[in-house]
Design a protein that fits this description.
- It is a single chain.
- Helices cover 27% and strands 34% of the residues.
- The chain has a 6-stranded antiparallel sheet with strand order 4-5-6-9-8-7. It has a two-stranded antiparallel ribbon with strand order 1-2. A two-stranded parallel sheet has the order 3-10.
- With 239 residues, the chain is of the alpha+beta class.
- Keywords: DNA-binding, Transcription, Transcription regulation.
Length: 239
């Protein structure tokens, strides 16, 4: 196979970065690329896999190999900020679509997470959030009605939830987050424009205000193909 795959990889990458193969384009098949570059199919396969691993290409069942958008850098693992603020910081255009916003009785899981009684009223806010016009994260948030009367009058398509918390005297101060890897079911795959079974970053978040009141419980499903998460760790002296 020698190093021919590196030449193929470089030429494919040049075509991607120059826009010849634009985002969303299905590149030629393995067989077609083999004829185009006059190399073996294993050579093509290795070159393409390098670009897949680097996030430039994505293999889709029944569709082929597609040029990807650059990865969206998510750094909320290091600090507390709204989705819109994070995206603006990285030069990414964001948009929010409210899927559902209603009051309902807290289930056993929600009540336990918010430390309220089962069947207490909570708001259920379901949003689909976009980055550069691509569906990126599907997030469901539960909020105690007792702490925030009148939220149903607010349009969270344009208004930030954390801004509302602050205006009502419950600024977010601390968030506990857990991360798992999950697979997209049919509904989530349809909402995020991915294939069923594709990997997701699955976050559960519990937010506290400055008085340590539990004010939100959120479940967020981020696309695994277009997001990358950064962590910043400090070494504690003496450990």
């Amino acid at each position: 196979m020698s190093a021919l795959y590196l030449d193929v990889k470089k030429d494919l990458l040049d075509k991607i970065t120059s826009g010849e193969y634009s985002e969303g384009t299905i590149i030629p098949t393995e067989h077609e690329l083999s004829d185009l570059y006059n190399v073996s199919r294993p050579t093509i396969r290795k070159a393409v896999q390098i670009l897949v691993d680097a996030g430039y290409l994505e293999k889709k069942k029944k569709r082929g190999t597609i040029v990807c958008a650059p990865k969206v850098i998510q750094d909320f693992t290091q600090s507390i900020s709204s989705f819109d603020t994070q995206m603006k910081r990285h030069g990414v255009v964001s948009k929010t679509q409210v899927i559902t916003f209603k009051m309902e009785e807290a289930s056993k899981e929600i009540a336990k997470s918010l430390q309220i009684h089962e069947k207490d009223l909570v708001y259920k806010l379901v949003r689909l959030r976009y980055t550069d016009h691509n569906p990126n994260v599907f997030i469901t948030t539960y909020i105690p009605v007792s702490l925030f009367p009148g939220l149903l009058d607010i349009d969270f398509t344009h208004i930030r939830l954390y801004d509302v918390f602050e205006k009502q005297g419950h600024s977010i101060d601390t968030i506990d987050r857990t991360l798992e890897i999950a697979l997209a079911d049919d509904t989530i795959a349809d909402m995020l424009d991915i294939d069923e079974g594709d990997p997701l970053f699955y976050f559960r978040s519990i937010g506290y205000d400055t008085q340590k009141n539990l004010i939100e419980y959120s479940i967020a499903r981020y696309r695994g193909d277009i997001n990358t998460f950064t962590l910043h760790l400090n070494q504690h002296k003496g450990e």
